[in-house]
Design goal:
0% of the residues lie in helices and 55% in strands. By secondary structure, the chain is an all-beta fold. The strands form 5 sheets. The protein has a 5-stranded antiparallel β-sheet, with no helix packed on it.
């Protein structure tokens, strides 16, 4: 995983138990079947075969056998393969191949609750609310409304509208809630954006009614 516009680190997982000199190895990274991402040709970096979008964006750490991909973008997501060949009696022989899957993460803004109408709140009338969060990646799982009164909290899941920017590929999400204004008790309303198991959740500031 890598954050958007940060450096992604892709490991070759090459143990090099034979302690082979880099000058006897050809190391190349590719994405998919036809994009060459980086190539080290018997100790020298070679740029002739690189896919244009990776030029000046990669660095190889020879000690850790790790590729650094600078300014990682959402288009860089996907499967990468590291292939290492040994110069064996003139004809190169593959001695190692491994795959690495890159996921890009962009932080969503803190969810924010807005009232969709103005004017005085009257008991037993409907209050229309929206909750929005923007500029994140990947697409979130769902949005949950939390309604707390006295010692209980109700969880309500409503439809989440999702839009994706055509250029940046970042997501904006919005959910709406209609709720009856309480007559006697104070209630606090928050909304929770679920980003997925490994990414956790974001919660809005509570709105008191």
């Amino acid at each position: 995983k890598s954050f958007l516009n940060h450096t992604a680190y892709l490991s070759c997982y090459f143990p090099n138990t034979e302690k082979t000199d880099i000058k006897d190895l050809r190391v190349f990274w590719q994405k998919g079947v036809d994009e060459v991402v980086h190539e080290v040709y018997y100790g020298q970096e070679k740029h002739d075969n690189l896919s244009p979008k990776y030029i000046n964006r990669t660095k190889m750490d020879m000690d850790k056998w790790t590729l650094q991909l600078l300014h990682a973008g959402i288009v860089d997501e996907g499967q990468y393969m590291c292939i290492i060949q040994h110069r064996d009696k003139g004809s190169p022989k593959v001695i190692h191949a491994s795959e690495c899957l890159l996921h890009i993460i962009a932080n969503y803004s803190q969810p924010e609750i807005a009232r969709l109408h103005t004017g005085e709140l009257k008991p037993n009338e409907y209050l229309n609310l929206s909750c929005s969060s923007s500029g994140g990646y990947p697409e979130p799982k769902q949005m949950t409304w939390l309604i707390s009164h006295e010692n209980t909290t109700d969880r309500l899941t409503r439809h989440m509208d999702v839009s994706q920017d055509a250029i940046t590929k970042l997501y904006n999400v919005t959910s709406r809630l209609n709720i009856i204004v309480p007559t006697k008790t104070l209630i606090n309303i928050s909304c929770l954006l679920h980003l997925g198991e490994q990414l956790g959740s974001l919660v809005s500031m509570p709105l008191g009614i």
